[in-house]
Amino acid sequence: MTPTEYEYLRKFLKDNSGLDLSADKQYLIESRLLPLARKAGLSGIAELVQKLQGGARQMITDVVEAMTTNETFFFRDKVPFDHFREHIMPEIIKARAAKRSVRIWCAAGSTGQEPYSLAMCLKEMGAALTGWRVEIIATDLSQEVLEKAKAGVYSQFEVQRGLPIQMLVKYFKQTGETWQINPELRAMIQHRQLNLLHDFAQLGTFDVIFCRNVLIYFDQDTKINIFNRLARQIEPDGFLVLGAAETVVGLTDTFRPIPERRGLYKPNDPRAAAAKPVLGGAPRLAAMAGR
Asked: What is the pTM of this model?
């Protein structure tokens, strides 16, 4: 790959997926895109770049998906799900007692382990949510991973990563060497393809937004843009959940951290977010996986 081709791909990926690669990541692009080029019958990266420059729509989609990180597993990092059970949902149940409904958005749902983990948490609450309307929206850039999430079929290796054995037995059915999550939990989740900096106002407002292990891929202006826009989609008493390596501190005043609850944030006055200018224009940001 020539330096010119690498710079073109860096810009292409940032414009189309939000991925902000440093100058020394040429090996990463080669390792992921060379197999894609060969599968498409191309001679190498140079011909792949030519296809992109020519506007080949399927190739554009394939390149973005090849560069997307889809590392995820059930109840990943444990702490956010402890927060969800012990702090978030008790507050939501009290605050929404009259309305008896809760809306949750997994902004980078990947192959489904995060939204299904939340669905299992909600089912385990039993009578506390009887008669409630529960809605989980799971979005991701990649149509391929969304299809896997919709099917809810996982390998033995995948269900062994983070999933307690009692929940495996309770909520999954084994077929040969795979496990499928039961229809009741699958029905709790709506899977939608979404690029995060495309307009997502149509999703409505949420009581809880999980946006974990996504912002680490983006530059500072893009993170600020995301936070300001998320603040407009969350209820004033709602909750934002970020990954362990992510924070709002030093970036925005649209959210404030909850003391002693790592990764958990509450929105400030949304009018402050609406008045705040969006920095860095409006890049096309992908809901990359890696949850």
From this structure: 0.79
